[in-house]
Amino acid sequence: MDEHKPVPIWFFVGMLLLVYGIIITTEGVYNLFPGHANPDLALQWLHADLWWGIVLTVLGSFYASHYFPSRKKE
Amino acid sequence: MQDILLLAAGGVPKQLLALASVDWLIIAIYFVVVLGIGFYLKRFAGTGEDFFMAGRKMTAWVAGLSFISANLSALETMGWSAQTYQYGLSAAHSYWYNAVPAIIFLAMVMMPFYYICRTHSVPGYLKLRFDGRSSTVAGGSFTFMTVMVSGASMFAMAKILHLLLGWDMNASILVASLTVAVYVALGGLISAILNEVLQFFLIWLGTLLVPILGIIDAGGWTRMTETIRHNMYAIHPALQHQNFTCLWSNMGSFDNPMGVDWIGLVFGFGVSGFSYWCTDFLQVQRVIVAKDLRSAQNGTLIGAMVKMCVPFIVILPGLLGMAVLANSDHTPMVLVPENDVRANITLHTYNDVLPLLMGRYLGPGLLGLGVTAMIAGFMSGMAGNVSAFATVWVYDVYKPLFNKNASDHHYLNMGRLCALVGVGVSIGTAYALFYFSNVLEFFQALGMFFLIPLFAVVILGMMWKRCSATGAFWGFVVGIAASVAMFLFVHAFPEGHRPVPQVALDQGAVVSLQEETVNGRQDSEGTEIQNLKRISRVIVEKGKVRLTNVPFLYEGGKQPFTSGGMTIKNTAVELPESFLDEETKRFEIRHADAKTDANRGEPMVNVKVLAPEVVLADSRQTGHFGVEGVPVILLPGVEVSSQDVTKYFDPSYFNRDHDHLIARSWKAQPIGVYMYCGLWSFLLSVFVAVGLSYGTPQRVEAELKDLVMGLTKVPNQGPCPWYQRPALWATAIAVLLAALNIIFW
Q1: Three-class SS of residue B634?
Q2: How remote is the C-alpha of B651 from its chain's centroid?
Q3: What angle is formed at CA B263 by the lines to CA B260 and CA B266, rounded to 5 degrees?
Q4: pTM
């Protein structure tokens, strides 16, 4: 068995949210341009994809940086 | 002519949601990450204690989030949204009355016993407290139920993904189950728990936008409740005068959407909640592996706090579904139960309420995140089942019965094998459900019934030192038997149960439709709709029709309810639009859709006509529709397959003559019947266990140390900051919970 402590799960959570945040924010920016947004969506004018993508990016960045393995105290 | 009812304006599309490439990317990343975590954690699961108990070193936050994540699965999010659509805000009792008080009780009262006695499982506690008899029954039943429920959950996942996204059911089952098998077999409980934490975030962040956008769309809470009250005429016409947006104020009688009074709710639902949260090892395992007792208690309380918030992503979407979902003609969209003949053909089901809202608000990217949340939910529940199955099988069945003195390495390998076998058996169960789909309810009900007698004997064992091993064993066994007997009783039809008369048109049948225009119906704003088109007659020109319990005249004679096949020859045949079923009057009277013929004063039953995929004769295009109470004409050349069906046991339906004896009311809905079943089962278990305990020998007090209240000393865990004290958080959560119940009274 590996005697080292495993990398905290919070780091994996952060990385996954960061990647998802970047993807969804990019999609949100793309949908800002005329003709790209789906007109069938309700409340499309709120651009939920853009600000939700930013929320994921910020949250993911916090967890990924705060629990980055090299900064973890042994 | 009978009143004609159009069942759906446009029918149900072949698939509800369409994914873009960015959505697929998000789903693929999820699978790569969970598998990667499994491979990474394999190196940390080198002993039995690591594999089965995650080394007993989880922090409070990891234990608490995994505790809730394992439950946020298996139809939890979609299932309780559906229940809310069916029962209204009363469904929140599942959280604010059934769950949270039970979780607080687990943390503050039961956790010290589980933790201090160092048991590996709940059946393991029974062995320490009583003897091997009750623990073997508990272990055997638990492993059986676990894989069955896991399979049922997998089947449900595949079915939902097929209906929502058009995914192949075989592929869904294999991909999801093999992924779970790999990461649990590699990393054991630690892998299951850590992935559950990851899945917790995905479930929340993938679902949270739906209620946020929904409440904006509905115009706020007050406007939403007003719209729900208005839409009731269409959504729940039989219950339109009942209050769907309160918790307790309608519980004084049986006149509420659940059809249960406060006695059934408080005691029946309360008992089922305490049973599930305090003795289901799938849940308890997540927190007894914390690094110390205080972390185990705080982890459980974190779970209670999160659980208190879950209604926001589960109950609120169900309410929003009643307020914002509308057809293209702006009338309220009506959803039906899964066992309704129109389900998934002409109408969406209750289970579709959350996906329908996702399709309404979530675009590319966000939709991928939402679907990932659903998949994560199913996988976390399945991983929970599989890891609990492996632990209970190895420690409570295999080790005591088959191989007592093997090495730790042997048990570790057995655990890995069990994870694979558990998934394999679950896959088998899932495929069995392809042919017996209504068994889903059967397994869910049995799972609940098994846990209630278990809770009865566990709580007696913890609280009452006089409780004997023989009393506990027979209390447990009698409780299980009573639960099963009540389940069989409420679904049994000694005089026969006849399914709704139905005409189903096979794929490719060629039909022409006659329509009529009607006025007077209202949309969701209360505005009258003019010139609404409705089907008034169906003419089948070619193809095959399947009749179930439909009598018709053919070649001069009435052939009621006969089974067999024939081809219409020289003259067209007109099927009845509705009729008086002389043989089954009693069934007709109770059938929700039965109409009363004003002239005769007799109950009439309408014939339903379902066409999932037919060719429309005038346009030669494919279409689908459903109507009831309209004439169907079969032209010469049409093939007919007729069957007469009478069932004597049907888990999808309740026998009202029987269930009112259990639930104390003719108005009880399924959830109300199960609440009372649970209550009677619990009382019977306690009665038998207490009665027999007075006549059988008890264990001496020295043997009960650390197992029974009064003989268990909670060790001093040293000083801690005020914010880490479990009693403080338990009190705060209880106060907040009381406030929520009062606000939504």
Answers
A1: strand
A2: 14
A3: 95
A4: 0.80
Give Cβ neighbours of residue B496 (< 8 Å, ≥ 6 apart). Answer: B584, B646, B647, B648
pLDDT tens for B530-571 read: 666 678 889 999 999 998 888 777 665 655 556 777 888 777
Complete edge-to-edge strand list for the sheet that includes strand B595-597: B578-579, B602-606, B595-597
Question: Do residues B456 and B666 make contact, with C-beta atoms less than 8 angstroms apart?
Answer: no
Measured in whole angstroms, how far is the alpha carbon of residue B117 from the centre of its chain? 33
Give the residue among B192, B256, B197 at the shortest CA–CA distance from B665. Answer: B256
**Residue B552 φ then ψ, to 5°:** -155, 160
Structure tokens at B298: 């705080």
Would you call A43 helix, strand, or coil by DSSP? coil
Is B13 part of the contact surface with chain A (CB cutoff 8 Å)?
no
Q: What is the DSSP letter of B108?
A: I
Q: Which residues of B touch A9 (CB under 8 A)?
A: 37, 62, 194, 197-198
Burial class (CB in 10 A: 0-12, 13-18, 19+), B337: middle
Per the structure block, which two tokens stand in for B65? 């989030």
CA–CA distance, B294 with B275 (Å, rounded to integer) = 23
Of A52, A43, A47, A46, nearest in space to A31 by CA:
A47
- In this structure, what token pair is assigned to residue B381? 């529940």
pLDDT at B214 over 90: yes
- Structure tokens belonging to residue B678: 């649970």
Query: Among candidates B460, B388, B465, which has minimal Cα distance to B683?
Result: B460
pLDDT single digits (tens) B632-661? 888 988 998 888 888 888 877 788 888 888
Task: Give the tens place of pLDDT for each residue, B562-616.
Answer: 677 788 877 788 887 777 665 544 333 333 344 444 444 455 677 888 887 889 8
Confirm if B93 and B247 have CB atoms less than 8 A apart: yes
Q: Do B22 and A23 touch (CB under 8 A)?
A: yes
Mutation for testing the A interface, residue in B42, B43, B201, B208 having most A CBs under 10 Å: B201
Q: How many residues can be counted in chain A?
A: 74
SS3 B522: strand
CB within 8 Å of B175: residues ≥ 6 apart = B31
| Phi then psi dihedrals of residue B591, to 5 deg | -70, 130
